[in-house]
Specification:
Elements: E1 12-18, H1 25-37, E2 43-49, H2 56-63, E3 70-75, H3 81-91, E4 96-99, H4 111-120, E5 125-132, H5 138-155, E6 166-169, H6 170-177, H7 186-193, E7 197-203, H8 216-230, H9 233-262, H10 270-302, E8 309-313
Helix pairs in contact: 5-8, 9-10
C-alpha cells in the first residue's frame, strides 16, 4: 500500500536522473515507490529528465496520476548526468536525499537499510559501494580501475567501487549545493566534503532495459573533469618533467662537448632526430595538461548556469 502524500516537506527525497529511459520507466517507478514506501517514511521521488528524446517525459506525466509522490523536472537539453543530479538536489526538500540511477542497477531494495543506518547510525552519509561491477566488459573494468587508482594517487580520494547511489543528510546536501563549480563530478565532490559516512555493499544487477548512455568519449571527458577539478598534481608533473629534461639536456650537452673535445664525435642525425621527437612529444603532452586546466578556468569564469529547466510537474493538491 502506498504511503500518503505529505502536505509538508517529506522526510526522504529520492533523486533519479533519467536519459532515454522511457521504455522501462514505468517498472522502475513502481519498484522504487514500493520500496520507498516500505521505509515507513514520507517521501518524494524527483525525476529529472535530462533532455530525453524518447517518451520519458510522457511516461512521467502518466505515472504522476497513479503515484502522487512524484515530482519531475525537465531540462531544456541533455546537460549530462552530473547536471541532472544537481537539478534534482536543488529541487529536493527531504531531511535525507537519496541519489540513484534510473535503470535499477542501483537496487531499490537497499533503501530501507540505508534509511535505517541514517536513523540509527549517527552518520551523515550512507554510501552504496559496488562489491562487484556486474557484467561490464573487461575494457570498462580496466578503465574504471585505472581511473580510480589515478584519481586516488593524484587527489588522495579513494573512490574505488564508489557509485552515485548515496543517502545524504540535509546538511550534506546543503554543503554540496554551496560548491559553486560548473564542472561537476558528484561522487568526488561528496568525498571532498568529508562528512562521516558508512558503506553498504551491493552487487550491480543487470539493467532493466535499454543501454548505457555513457560512451567512451563521455567517460573520458568525465575523467578529465574529475582529475582537473580535484587535483592540481598534473601541473606539478609538468614541472617535474621539465626539470628532468633540463638535467638530461645538461648531461647530454656535457657528453657532446667532451666527445667533440676528444675528437670522438660521431656525425649523423639519428640522435638529434630522436631527441627532437621525444622532447616534442613531451612538450605537446605538457601543453595538453595545461590546456585542460585553462579550459576548466574558461568554463568557470563564464558563470553560465549548470542547467536550464524547461518544464516542471508537481502533484495536484
Amino acid at each position: 500500500m502506498e504511503a500518503a502524500v505529505a502536505t509538508q516537506a517529506p522526510t526522504l527525497s529520492i533523486v533519479m536522473p533519467l536519459f532515454q529511459e522511457g521504455a522501462h520507466l514505468e517498472q522502475v517507478i513502481d519498484r522504487v515507490v514500493g520500496h520507498a514506501a516500505a521505509t515507513g517514511e514520507t517521501f518524494e521521488l524527483i525525476l529529472v529528465d535530462d533532455g530525453s528524446r524518447d517518451q520519458t517525459w510522457e511516461v512521467i506525466r502518466e505515472r504522476m496520476a497513479r503515484h502522487p509522490q512524484l515530482r519531475a523536472v525537465r531540462l531544456s537539453r541533455n546537460f549530462g548526468k552530473e547536471a541532472a543530479v544537481c537539478a534534482g538536489l536543488d529541487a529536493a526538500r527531504g531531511e535525507a536525499v537519496v541519489v540513484m540511477d534510473g535503470d535499477l542497477q542501483h537496487p531499490p531494495e537497499l533503501l530501507s537499510r540505508m534509511v535505517a543506518l541514517w536513523r540509527t547510525g549517527g552518520v551523515d552519509l550512507v554510501e552504496a559501494v559496488k562489491e562487484r561491477r556486474g557484467t561490464e566488459s573487461w575494457i570498462n573494468r580496466m578503465g574504471a580501475r585505472l581511473f580510480y587508482s589515478g584519481l586516488a594517487f593524484l587527489s588522495g580520494h579513494d573512490l574505488d567501487g564508489a557509485s552515485d547511489f548515496k543517502l545524504m543528510d540535509r546538511r550534506v546536501v546543503e554543503a554540496w549545493l554551496r560548491l559553486g563549480e560548473r564542472n561537476l563530478f558528484f561522487r568526488g565532490m561528496v568525498a571532498w566534503l568529508g562528512f562521516e559516512s558508512v558503506k553498504v555493499r551491493f552487487e550491480v544487477p543487470e539493467r532493466v532495459g535499454g543501454h548505457s548512455g555513457w560512451s567512451y568519449a563521455r567517460l573520458a571527458r568525465l575523467a578529465v573533469t574529475a582529475v582537473t577539478a580535484h587535483s592540481s598534481s598534473p601541473l606539478q608533473i609538468v614541472t617535474f618533467l621539465g626539470t628532468v629534461f633540463f638535467f638530461f639536456a645538461m648531461a647530454l650537452s656535457a657528453q657532446t662537448l667532451y666527445n667533440w673535445y676528444t675528437g670522438s664525435a660521431v656525425s649523423g642525425f639519428t640522435t638529434v632526430i630522436l631527441l627532437i621527437l621525444i622532447v616534442g612529444a613531451v612538450q605537446m603532452i605538457c601543453l595538453g595538461i595545461i590546456g585542460a586546466y585553462i579550459a576548466r578556468v574558461f568554463e568557470e569564469v563564464k558563470g553560465r548556469p549548470r542547467y536550464i529547466v524547461k518544464d516542471r510537474l508537481e502533484p495536484q493538491a
